[in-house]
Each structure stands twice: as C-alpha cells, then as structure tokens.
C-alpha cells in the first residue's frame, strides 16, 4: 500500500493547491474589475502585457515563440512548458529523455536509433522504416522529419518549448500530439561563450562549449561543440565487450548578417556523428503463449549453447555485438525583412541529411539466430517556408506557405534471417505543400480571439524490393532482384483552430480552444502486402478540445497552471509483428482525455526555497480496435476480418502504448547565498503509472509503476564566471524498461527491449568566457 498511498496523497495535495489557486484567481479577478483604469489605451495595454519582459523578483517567466511570435509563456494560451538553459544545466538534462519528467504527460522511449516521444498518449508506436512521429521536432524553426534526430542531445541551447496538444495550424504535418521546439543560442553583439566538462561513473567524459560575438560591422558568429562518451551500462557476456555505451561528437556554426536596418540573415550548419555499441536489444524472457487461458508466456527459444544473463536488463549473451553508426547534418538560411514597424517577411530554407546504420540480434541469447541490419537508412530533406507576420495592438497575424520536398527515407536495407538471404527495403519519398494563417484579435483589452487554419497536401511515392532465398547464407551485398511495388498515394487535410482567452487579472489567464490535427497516411516500407499488413495506411486524425488557466499569484510566489483536454482520435497507426516483419496497421478509434497541473511555490520571505509539482492524469483508451496477436495463435474473443477471419482480440478499452494513467514529479530546492557565490541543493521524485508497450496490454510487455529519485548540487561563483553541478540520477539504481515487445514467434517469440540508464553519478565544471 506504500506507493499507491503516496501517489494518492500527492494528487490530493495537488488538487488542494489547484483549488486554492483557482479561488485566488477568482478573487483577484474580481478585484481587478474594480481597480481604476490603468493603461491609456486598452488595446495597446493588452498588447504590451503580452510582450513586455515580466517582473523577475519571484518565480521566473520565459519569453517563448510557441505561436511563432515572442510572448511570455504565462501569456501564451496553450499548454506549453518552457525550460531555459539554466534549468537544463541545473538538472543535468542533456536529451529529450531527461526532460520528460519535467513536462506533464510526456513519455520518452528509445528503440534502436529512433526516439519515440509521446505527448498525451499520441506519438510514435513503431520502429517501422519510413514511419513518422506524431510529435514534431523543430530546431530553430526547422522541422526534422526523422525521429532519430532527437537522440542527438542538447548543447548550447537557449530554451526548449514543449507544446502539448495538436499543433495542426502553425506546425502542420506530424504535429498531431504536439511539438518539441529547440531554440539554440544565437550570435550576439557582445563576445560571450562557455566551456564545461563532465566526469562520472561508467567512464563518462563529456565536453561542451561555445564562443560567439561580433566579427565586423553587421556581422556576428557563434561556434558550438559537444562530445559524449561513456563505457556502457552492460556487457556482452559472449564477446566480453561493453554495450549500451555512447561515443558521439557534434558541432554547430552560425553567422548572423545585418546588411541593412531592416534585413537580418542567419546562416547555420551543424553535424552530429555517433559510432558505438548502443541500441542492444535485451532478452527479457519468453513471450509466446501456447494455449488459451495461459496467464503468462509458456516458452521462449534458447539456442543450444546459449544462456540467459543473470542481469538481462543490462547484459546480453550473443556472438554479435550491437553496432550503431549514425550521423545527422544540414544547414539553413533564415532571413527576415521588416517591411515597417508592424509587418515583416520571413523565409527559412533548410537541408537535412540523416544516415542510420544499426545492426543487432533480435534473439540476444546463444548463437546468432536473426540479424537485423539496417545498413542504408538514408534520409534527405529539403524545406522552404515563407511567412508573413503582422503585429499590431489589435492583431497578431502569422501567415505562411511552407513547402517540404523529398522528406523521408530514400534508401533502406538489408536485413537477414536465419543467416539466410532476406532483403526487405526500398525507397520512400514525400512531397508536401501547405498554406496556413492564424490571427489573434483583441476583442477588448482583456478578451482575445484566435482563429487559424492550414490546408495540407502530401504525396508519398514508394518503390519496394524484397528477396527471400534460403538456399545460401546471407552476405551484406546480397543481390536484390525482386521489386514488388511501385506506387504512390496523395493525402489532403484541413486543420482549423478556434481559441479564446481572457485576462482575468494581470497575471491570470483563462483560455479554451478547439483544433484538429493530421498525420498523413503512409506505406509499409519493405513489408509484403499481406493479410493484416495493409499496403497503404490511412491518415491519423484528431479533434481536440482544451481549456485551462495560467496564474502567477501572491507577488509571484505561486504559479499554478492547470489544463484539461478531450480528444477524438481516429485511424491510429500502430505497430504489429506479422511474420518476419514489423508492420504498421490502422487501429480504428481511440478516446483520450485528462488533466495536467504545473505548480511552483516560494513560501519563504527570502524566496530562496522553491517547491515544484508537475502532475498529470491521462485516460487514453482504444474505442474500437480488433487485432490478432501473432504470438498467441488461435486465441482471441472475436474474428479479425483483415486476417482472413482468424481469431483476434477485441482491444476496446485497452490502454494506448506509452500512455501511463498518471505521472507526478515533486521537487524542492534551496539556494544559499555566500561570499563565494550561490549554492543550490535540489531533489526530486517522479512517480509513473504502469506503461504498456503493446496495444494488447500484456503485463509482461509493460513497465510496472515506478518511483525514481534524483539529487543535485549546483554552484555559481559570485562573479558569475564559474559554475559546477553535481548530480545523482536514479538514486535507487532501479531497472526500468523504456520499451519492450515480443519478437516474432517464428524466432522464438522472446520478449526483447531496452532499459533506462542505471544510477549515474557525475560532476560538471564550467566557466563562462
């Protein structure tokens, strides 16, 4: 009863805090209505309140560009969480995986070299080649089409904005669940920079730094770099080599030009490279049920001479070491021209490349049985976006015409099975065109109406190849001679948004919205068209209703942001093992609703002590989904028409994958000011409900409820030049799965998966230049 009681108590406390905040908001709003008029121009006053730098004598506020214009996060009528550079450093957050505990209803997992980010139950539920995430990743305004780019980590970052809920109007394609926006530090007018190093257990040795400033009149530049190294969290007991290690290097260069007072041009280029033995599948036990009514798996395949590691979450036992080699690189030209004081033109031209080469064994015990090798997942992307911005006292208009050309993998293969010749691969091209506009109009000095819409067109063209020959052993340059599909499909979507918000008081905002999101259909790249594996997938669509309150109260001692949402979600694209392939299928419908709260409290007069609470409750369930399970043949409670009338399971009422019912993060920190500088001690604890990794909601393919604690000690010198951070993450050294699935019954049906890092300890030392 310990953990449920603690979680229940945390939720009761958060509910009480929310009630107090709401009551205070109403009282402050009532007082605001009787306060004598302040600003001479109501419209001008409303505009100024949204763009001015907020007071910083209490809980900090951050200026964001979530709506493609600058405004304080507390004045943005969206469920958006912003994390600045100091917050990331103070919690040693260097990747999307790290920030998920700081943002309500965000779940992160990793499968092979791909990131799976889920927001409010919507995300990427597959590693199928050519699949798109439903959570958009944008870096400096450039959309990254491949989810693996999220694994590249953060460095020289100004802030990160996580937008929850469909962003179909302003962010368009594949933003059904939300958007993660990374904004890097820009070249400035004064010289600045930093360099820092981190040492820790598991041989961790990381370096990061940047240097920037003016070069000439109207020209400034910035150069940033990052290196990561650790020896690995486990061992391949057959080869003796460390696995799940990391060796990566990244560099970014920026040049800012200002030829005239009205024209600003920024050029950026970046490169990321990783080569290590990461992404090892771990054998977690049997995963095949042999007869109806069996409550747990009855057997798994263990080859002669093979053995299961005593700590399978960390170690593997296979003659094949995992091999991971990835690179992401590209650049952009960002130009803004100010037509006058209220209107501007904005253009972003970008090119991206990603190369993912991974090799691993999907039955990582004993002799090498099945080698999966994605040796040529190359992707290239060319994007062009034009924006027109009109910013007045009464209007905040953003209009644009973005074009995406050639986004998606253009070459994939080869793979092997039973050491014989099996090739599944091909080419997939996406051409996308869209136009959108969104305007926020001040109906009164307090009441604002937002209306927007986007029309999207996407065409996907596929060329698939396969070759299956069991008469000879597989070799890397295996000849592919059997094209089986040349096809294309077009998808259209109209995604509108209507929103209204009201300034109940200066620091209290009420908002509500209705919007739609769209993720285009797709092909099952490299998968045989067969029963249960459709050749063409339908688009995902979501209709969302949301409302919330943002408040900063008691002389900025208390921040309380609360939101609630309801989604109708149709044609979900979910993964399914069919034969040797991992295919995508459309689930019929799902219903998602829930609530979130973000609270910060400074109870002491000196404001040195701060408590934070992020809490979310999520109900994400299938309404209509019938699917057979290849690892439970002949079982089910109904008939699956797509599988030639095979028995199947009615999954209505089951949890969506990666959608725990609750997440709670409770933290506290205290800052000591001394003559040597300031010291901040922080601790936090995160509770997460059960996470299912399969729509079948099997307990042995899930992560049971968890509770993880972290601790930090931060130092900043009185001169602000030197800083240090000591951290301990996962203090209890718990084995927590980040994902798992049952491999094909044809190769034993074992449960395989990945785990979050064990306890990590480290220290970061840095200096501001």
Brief summary:
This protein has 769 residues and is mostly beta strands. The protein has four helices and 47 strands. The longest helix is centred in the N-terminal third of the chain and has 33 residues, at 2-34.
What do these coordinates show?
The protein is mainly β. It is built from 4 helices and 47 strands. Strand 32 and strand 33 form a beta hairpin.
Backbone CA Rg: 26 Å
Tell me the quaternary state. Answer: single chain
Please estimate the helix content: under 10%
Query: Separation of termini?
Result: 52 Å
Could you tell me the number of beta strands? 47
Query: Which ranges are low-confidence, i.e. pLDDT below 50, for 5 or more consecutive residues?
Result: 1-49, 290-300, 410-420
Structural class based on helices, strands and sheet pairing: mainly beta
Q: Averaged pLDDT, please?
A: 81
Largest sheet: 22 strands, antiparallel, barrel
- Tell the overall outline: globular
Count of DSSP-assigned helices: 4
Q: How much strand content do the residues show? A: over 45%
Key structural traits:
mainly beta, disordered N terminus, 769 residues
Ordered list of secondary-structure elements with their pairings:
Elements: H1 2-34, H2 42-51, E1 63-64, E2 71-72, E3 79-84, H3 85-90, H4 96-99, E4 106-111, E5 114-119, E6 135-139, E7 142-144, E8 157-164, E9 178-184, E10 192-200, E11 204-216, E12 219-230, E13 234-235, E14 242-243, E15 246-257, E16 263-276, E17 282-285, E18 323-338, E19 343-361, E20 371-391, E21 395-405, E22 409-411, E23 415-417, E24 420-442, E25 447-473, E26 483-505, E27 508-519, E28 522-523, E29 536-537, E30 540-553, E31 558-570, E32 573-578, E33 581-586, E34 589-601, E35 609-624, E36 626-627, E37 638-640, E38 646-650, E39 662-674, E40 677-688, E41 691-692, E42 702-703, E43 706-717, E44 722-729, E45 737-742, E46 751-755, E47 760-768
Parallel strand pairs: 6-9
Antiparallel strand pairs: 1-2, 3-8, 4-5, 6-7, 8-9, 10-11, 10-47, 11-12, 12-15, 13-14, 15-16, 16-18, 17-46, 18-19, 19-20, 20-21, 20-22, 21-24, 23-24, 24-25, 25-26, 26-27, 27-30, 28-29, 30-31, 31-34, 32-33, 34-35, 35-39, 36-38, 37-38, 39-40, 40-43, 41-42, 43-44, 44-47, 45-46
């Amino acid at each position: 009863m310990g953990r449920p009681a603690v979680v229940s108590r945390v939720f009761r406390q958060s509910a009480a805090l929310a009630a107090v905040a709401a009551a205070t908001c109403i009282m402050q709003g009532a007082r605001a209505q009787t306060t004598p008029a302040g600003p001479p121009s109501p419209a001008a006053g409303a505009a100024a309140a949204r763009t001015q730098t907020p007071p910083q004598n209490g809980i900090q506020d951050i200026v964001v560009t979530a709506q493609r214009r600058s405004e304080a996060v507390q004045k943005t009528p969206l469920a958006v969480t912003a994390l600045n550079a100091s917050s990331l450093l103070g919690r040693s957050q260097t990747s999307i995986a790290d920030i998920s505990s700081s943002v309500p209803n965000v779940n992160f997992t990793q499968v092979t070299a791909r990131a799976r980010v889920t927001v409010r139950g919507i995300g990427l539920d597959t590693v199928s080649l050519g699949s798109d995430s439903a959570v958009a990743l944008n870096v400096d305004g450039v959309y990254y089409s491949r989810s693996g780019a999220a694994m590249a980590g953060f460095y020289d970052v100004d802030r990160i904005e996580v937008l929850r809920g469909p962003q179909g109007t302003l962010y368009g394609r594949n933003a059904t669940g939300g958007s993660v926006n990374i904004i890097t530090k820009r070249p400035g007018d004064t010289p600045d920079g930093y360099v820092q190093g981190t040492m820790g257990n598991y041989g961790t040795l990381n370096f990061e730094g940047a240097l920037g400033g003016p070069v000439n009149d109207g020209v400034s530049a910035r150069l940033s770099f990052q290196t990561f190294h650790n020896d690995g969290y486990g061992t391949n007991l057959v080869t003796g080599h460390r696995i799940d290690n990391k060796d990566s290097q990244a560099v970014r260069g920026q040049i800012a030009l200002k030829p005239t007072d009205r024209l600003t041009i920024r050029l950026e280029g970046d490169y990321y490279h990783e080569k290590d033995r990461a992404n090892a599948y771990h054998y977690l036990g049997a995963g095949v049920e042999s007869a109806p009514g069996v409550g747990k798996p009855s057997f798994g395949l263990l080859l002669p001479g093979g053995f299961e590691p005593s700590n399978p979450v960390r170690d593997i036992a296979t003659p094949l070491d995992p091999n991971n080699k990835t690179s992401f690189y590209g650049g952009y030209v960002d130009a803004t021209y100010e037509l006058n004081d209220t209107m501007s033109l904005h253009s972003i031209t970008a090119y991206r490349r990603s190369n993912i080469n991974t090799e691993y064994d999907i039955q990582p015990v004993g002799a090498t049985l099945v080698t999966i090798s994605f040796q040529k997942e190359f992707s290239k992307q060319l994007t062009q976006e034009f924006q027109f911005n009109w910013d007045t006292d009464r209007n905040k208009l953003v209009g644009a015409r973005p074009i995406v050309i050639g986004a998606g993998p253009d070459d994939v293969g080869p793979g092997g099975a039973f050491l014989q010749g099996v090739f599944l691969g091909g080419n997939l091209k996406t051409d996308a065109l869209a136009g959108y506009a969104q305007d926020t109009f001040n109906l009164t000095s307090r009441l604002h109406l937002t209306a927007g819409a986007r029309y999207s067109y996407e065409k996907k063209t596929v060329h698939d190849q396969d070759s299956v020959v069991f008469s000879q052993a597989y070799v890397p340059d295996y000849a592919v001679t059997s094209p089986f599909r040349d096809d294309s499909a077009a998808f259209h979507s109209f995604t509108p948004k209507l929103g209204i918000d009201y300034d109940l008081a200066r620091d209290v905002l009420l908002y509500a919205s209705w919007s739609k999101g769209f993720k285009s259909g797709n092909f099952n790249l490299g998968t045989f068209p067969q029963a249960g594996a459709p050749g063409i997938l339908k688009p995902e669509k979501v209709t969302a209703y949301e409302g919330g309150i943002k408040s900063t109260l008691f002389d900025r001692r208390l921040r309380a942001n609360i939101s609630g949402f309801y989604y109708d979600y149709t044609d979900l694209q979910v993964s399914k093992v069919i034969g040797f392939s991992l295919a995508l299928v459309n689930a019929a419908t799902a219903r998602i609703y829930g609530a979130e709260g973000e609270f910060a409290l400074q109870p002491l007069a000196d404001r040195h002590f701060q408590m934070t609470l992020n809490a979310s409750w999520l109900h994400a369930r299938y309404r209509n989904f019938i699917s057979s399970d290849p690892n439970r043949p002949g079982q089910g409670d109904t008939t699956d028409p797509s599988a030639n009338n095979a028995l199947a399971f009615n999954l209505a009422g089951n949890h969506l994958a990666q959608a725990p019912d609750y997440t709670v993060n409770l933290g506290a920190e205290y800052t000591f000011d001394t003559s040597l500088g300031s010291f901040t001690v922080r601790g936090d604890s995160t509770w997460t409900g059960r996470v299912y990794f399969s729509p079948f909601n099997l307990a042995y393919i899930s992560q049971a409820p968890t509770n993880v604690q972290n601790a930090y000690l931060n130092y900043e010198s009185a001169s602000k030049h030197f800083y240090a951070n000591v951290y301990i993450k996962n203090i209890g050294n718990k084995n927590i799965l980040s994902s798992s699935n049952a491999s094909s019954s044809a190769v034993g049906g074992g449960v395989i998966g990945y785990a979050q890092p064990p306890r990590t300890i480290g220290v970061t030392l840095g200096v501001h230049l």
